[in-house]
Amino acid sequence: xxxxxxxxxxxxxxxxxxMTLQCAQDMNHNSMYWYRQDPGMGLRLIYYSASEGxxxxxxxxxxxxxxxxNKREFSLRLESxxxxxxxxxxxxxxxxxxxxxxxxxxxxxxxLTVV
Amino acid sequence: xQSVTQLDSHVSVSEGTPVLLRCNYSSSYSPxxxxxxxxxxKGLQLLLKYTSAATLVKGINGFxxxxxxxxxxxxxxxxxxHMSDAAEYFCVVNLNAGNNRKLIWGLGTSLAxxx
Lengths: 115, 115
Prior knowledge:
The complex is a heterodimer of chains A (115) and B (115). Chain A has 115 residues and is mostly beta strands. In chain A, 0% of the residues lie in helices and 55% in strands. In chain A, the strands form 2 sheets. In chain A, strands 2, 4, 5, 6, 9, 10 and 11 form a 7-stranded mixed beta sheet that branches. Chain A has a 4-stranded antiparallel beta sheet with strand order 1-3-8-7, with no helix packed on it. In chain A, a hairpin with a 5-residue loop joins strand 7 and strand 8 (74-78). Chain A starts with a strand and ends with a strand. Chain B is built from no helices and 12 strands. In chain B, strands 2, 5, 6, 10, 11 and 12 form a 6-stranded mixed beta sheet that branches. In chain B, strands 3-9-8-7 form a 4-stranded antiparallel beta sheet, with no helix packed on it. Chain B starts with a strand and ends with a strand. Classes of the chains: A mainly beta (115), B mainly beta (115). At the A-B interface, strand 5, strand 9 and strand 10 of A face strand 6 of B.
């Protein structure tokens, strides 16, 4: 009953450090997304992958890279973290949910602080 | 330009009274529309969606929304607020341009429910 699983849930990085946020979905969805959420700014799309083997930039891609490792997994990498990347990150996939409705399913989020 | 406007950044109601969260959109396409809810320190959950079927859409937890094309609105309502409804609510437009779904998120409405 997992849906979309993100790890880690919390992370503190020093400026300049790198890390990878992991995301996996078990619903056989083609499309996956990475968003960041900041107070007063709603959700902003970082990158998305319409299908396995493809990735595209979203609204705020600078400072990030992504990998669509296979149909299940879509990771987000920060090569050199900056304080401006302090945010809550959400992974999502699009497709039929467990009730058979089509829509977006979100992970529970990763709260990242860069000091 | 495509956009979503949530007309109130904060709404406060008393328990047992009606809830109205307003959303207007601007789109050149026939959009799909969603409402998501986010409880404090939680992920995003789909409340309901409109996808060109019935204009009055019923969702979970007693919420419903009406799509009014002439007014380009998709307001969220609930007849009687419950304390557990206190959360952040996001109106989302899915332009679904070709194979690249493009979501546009409103900035959110924070709903407070007073005893």
